[in-house]
Automatic annotation (TrEMBL):
GO MF entries: purine nucleobase transmembrane transporter activity
Subcellular location: Endomembrane system
Keyword annotations: Membrane, Transmembrane, Transmembrane helix, Transport
Organism: Actinobacteria bacterium BACL2 MAG-121220-bin52
InterPro entries: Azg-like, NCS2
Native organism taxonomy: Bacteria, Bacillati, Actinomycetota, Actinomycetes, Actinomycetes incertae sedis
Name the record gives this protein: Permease
Mode of membrane association: Multi-pass membrane protein
Family: Belongs to the nucleobase:cation symporter-2 (NCS2) (TC 2.A.40) family. Azg-like subfamily.
Transmembrane segments: 21-40, 60-80, 85-104, 110-129, 141-163, 183-202, 209-227, 277-295, 360-379, 410-443, 455-477
GO terms under cellular component: endomembrane system; plasma membrane
């Protein structure tokens, strides 16, 4: 029954392979259950209240809702779209919601804007507009998006592992380790996990990525028990320990099961924001959310489909309309649950690297997220440093597609180049896509090849120009 519904054999996979892929995807993105509460749970709204309406933060409340929505929407992606793509609260979007939106109004008003954006983007999918825009993008530019995302997730892995860190000063924004030096046992765990996973892969050992995560976590727990390393940042004291673990401190939890509190569900006010900020400001906020959601998923599903070998000759993954529909509904669900817009996760590529090819992997990931609502303490066992080697490996695999781009044709080569470099350099998928679209349109027009530019791509490039010039436009309107 599973094989028939999910087309497992047809896509050259197996149930065991899908389960492994789903587990690996969960491990590489489970950090969001701990990180989202730290981003939106510790921020105050325009009325000086924390998420949930209290005067003190309630991180457990945010964590439970984050895991619940991620679980439900990932399962929906698996069953409806049959694609190995998991969903959770969007990083970057949650920061924008916390800092750029909620600070101007109440949390309920801010989440109302997220729901409104999700409804709009769902309508765009149902009318076929979102899919039509996707199909208007040249195939080689889609490949460039996939390659750029590969570099981006590799950088995410290096930063999360502490191998690359922000300098905070000077002409260079990032550096090796702590001020140019690799320090602390966590980096050793990362290096061990990376070379272990590489070794298992080149020896063609099944479950190489999953085994790398599990064994590295075991080493991390042993090192923490022996040396009492502690976290990189201690929220209680405000102290920074450059030799500490990033986010999760690997230690066996005192309790495995915790009762979740879903009291945050339904904490949104659909049109309340329009009473707190000018109409044009509210519309610009919705537009910014819309553009990020619209194209992040477009790039993510292209990259995942390409890596899994599922895309057609035009670079379009199977069931593209269903993928985009579920992703759009995830934005609505995230806002309605009070945890910010949910979107597709590029970390799903780690599961594809482990062999996932169908939606069964997403169902497995979703079930693990649902279990996390009860097993939140267990998720904290796995440190970034043990999970991030998977992102480096997958980044490499996605980079190999770069050979499919025609570097002799400047009309596609320059936009591809800008797409590839700006994703990691700006830490933003949409910026890379936007730069690629705009430059492609400009160069093709300069070459006198206007017929190569689809009208929808021209429209999209114009919208991206508004996105890039958002700040001066906002200042001029104000």
């Amino acid at each position: 029954m599973l094989d028939t519904y999910f087309k497992i054999s047809q896509r050259g996979s197996s149930v065991a392979q899908e389960v492994r892929g789903g587990v690996v995807t969960f491990f590489t993105m489970a950090y969001i259950v701990a990180l989202n509460p730290l981003i939106i749970g510790l921020s105050k709204d325009g009325d000086g209240k924390y998420l949930g309406g209290g005067d003190v933060p309630n991180l457990a409340l945010v964590a439970a809702a984050t895991a619940l929505v991620a679980g439900v929407m990932s399962i929906l992606m698996g069953f409806v779209a049959n694609f190995p793509l998991a969903i959770a609260t969007g990083l970057g979007l949650n920061t924008f919601v916390a800092v750029g939106i909620a600070s101007k109004m109440t949390w309920a008003d801010a989440m109302g804007l997220v729901v409104l954006e999700g409804i709009i983007i769902t309508v765009l999918v149902l009318t076929g507009f979102r899919t039509a825009v996707f199909r208007a993008v040249p195939t080689q530019l889609k490949i460039a998006i996939s390659v750029g995302i590969g570099l981006f997730i590799a950088l995410i892995g290096l930063v999360d592992a502490g191998f690359v860190r922000r300098t905070g000063s000077g002409p260079v924004p990032v550096t090796l380790g702590d001020n140019g030096e690799l320090v602390g046992w966590p980096v050793v765990v990362f290096a061990f996990g990376l070379f272990l996973t590489i070794g298992l892969m080149v020896r063609k050992i099944k479950a190489a990525i999953l085994l790398g995560i599990i064994i590295s976590t075991g080493l991390a727990i042993a090192l923490e028990s022996a040396y009492k390393i502690g976290p990189l940042f201690d929220g209680a004291t405000g102290n920074v320990n450059p030799k500490g673990w990033n986010l999760n401190v690997p230690a066996l939890p005192e309790a495995v099961v915790a009762t979740p509190d879903f009291g945050l569900l339904g904490s949104f006010n659909l049109f309340g924001s329009f009473d707190r900020v000018p109409l044009i400001t509210a519309l610009l906020l919705v537009f910014t959310l819309l553009l990020a959601d619209f194209f992040d998923t477009m790039g993510t599903m292209t990259a995942i489909g390409q890596e899994a070998g599922l895309n057609d000759k035009d670079g379009t993954p199977p069931n593209a309309e269903r993928i985009l529909l579920v992703d759009s509904l995830a934005a609505v669900a995230g806002g309605a649950a009070g945890v910010s817009s949910n979107t597709s996760y590029i970390e799903s590529a780690s599961g594809v690297g482990e062999g996932a090819r169908t939606g069964l992997a997403s169902v497995v990931t979703g079930l693990l997220f649902l279990l996390t609502t009860f097993l939140a303490p267990l998720v904290a066992v796995i440190p970034y440093e043990a999970a991030t080697p998977a992102l480096i490996i997958v980044g490499f695999l996605m980079m190999t597609q770069i050979k499919l781009i025609d570097w002799e044709d400047y009309g596609i080569a320059i936009p591809a180049f800008l797409t590839i470099i700006l994703m990691p350099f700006t830490y933003n998928i949409s910026v890379g896509i936007g730069a690629g679209f705009v430059s492609y349109v400009v160069i093709r027009y300069l070459q006198g090849r206007r017929k190569d530019v689809h009208p929808l791509l021209l429209l999209t490039a114009g919208l991206f120009m508004i996105y890039f010039l958002n700040s001066p436009i906002n200042a001029w309107v104000s």
